């Protein structure tokens, strides 16, 4: 694999850390700003909103920029957003700076996925994309636990200053390691928007939204499940979250490799596995060993889906992959919101702390159904192409015949 992928992975590590570490230091930030925990929750929502807004907006704005320039620009904005958040004088400014920090998230991954796939041959594109996303999954294993510990011991502001430094390291790595690719001559706003006329692109985004929404319905409430149902001590939850992060890392690794060999069978298998594991979690959540094993498997199944669909949506976009690739990140964060909302709804309805797993299983089943529709369209397109090729041969029988000339 090209060493340039390391630079992209460092950027992904920083982005993954800033996205999820806020949950770990939320009490410290709430106390510092003098607001309640629910009010401090806007610091999480503001980041997610920044991702959803920034992914298409910044990609459209910079569609004709060289992709290396695009990546570096997004890292500069990422550094500024996190550094300003670490220095925020009050809660209102904090919410705004978190929104600012979220803006480059989707655009970075969108451009990064295109760059990663361009660095390798046809049979390794999804694998290359998964190597970049490995930084995102490792953030849940290393960055989030260490950032949470730093925030608890030194202060939450130190955590986000460290994140800004990680962004600076990513910026220097991209400048040094990612080759200049020139201005994408074929790129245009009209071409990027035209990709959204393709049903397969919308199907892929819907599978991300609902399929991964199933995983987030569970993961959003895994802490109370582990403490109040499985019986773990609160101090152990960080280790359990790291275990889930290891599962995500393995799932991302497997998804990237399977996507280059058999993408649709791998996608359907991952979604079926996610639904099965979430259903089992309604039972295994009552056992410490069972819960620990199952949360690892939830991470594996859920994050197998990501690199497969990232590669698929770029393939279906044809020659204009940047905007739809960035849109995957918007869909990812919408999945997070939908899963968390529906999971919270069933808990509030008195169905218990394991009820989000049932919601997740149903969402995974919906994602699997959409994947089956997408696979059916693939088969129909292949049949149509075969029929057109056969008709062309029949219409020009001499086209393939030898001419007899030397």
Describe this entry's structure for a reader.
This protein is an all-alpha fold. It contains 16 helices and no strands. It has helices at residues 4-24, 26-33, 37-40, 42-61, 67-86, 91-118, 125-153, 156-177, 189-194, 199-219, 222-229, 237-259, 263-284, 288-316, 322-348, 355-395. It is globular and about 75 Å long. The model has no long low-confidence stretch (mean pLDDT 84).
Flag low-confidence runs: none
Strand portion, in percent? under 5%
Major pleated sheet: none
Number of strands: 0
Q: Let me know the average pLDDT.
A: 84
Put simply, the count of helices is 16
Any idea what the shape is? globular
Fraction in helix: over 70%
Tell me the span between the first and last alpha carbons.
44 Å
Topology readout:
Blueprint lengths: L3 H21 L1 H8 L3 H4 L1 H20 L5 H20 L4 H28 L6 H29 L2 H22 L11 H6 L4 H21 L2 H8 L7 H23 L3 H22 L3 H29 L5 H27 L6 H41 L11
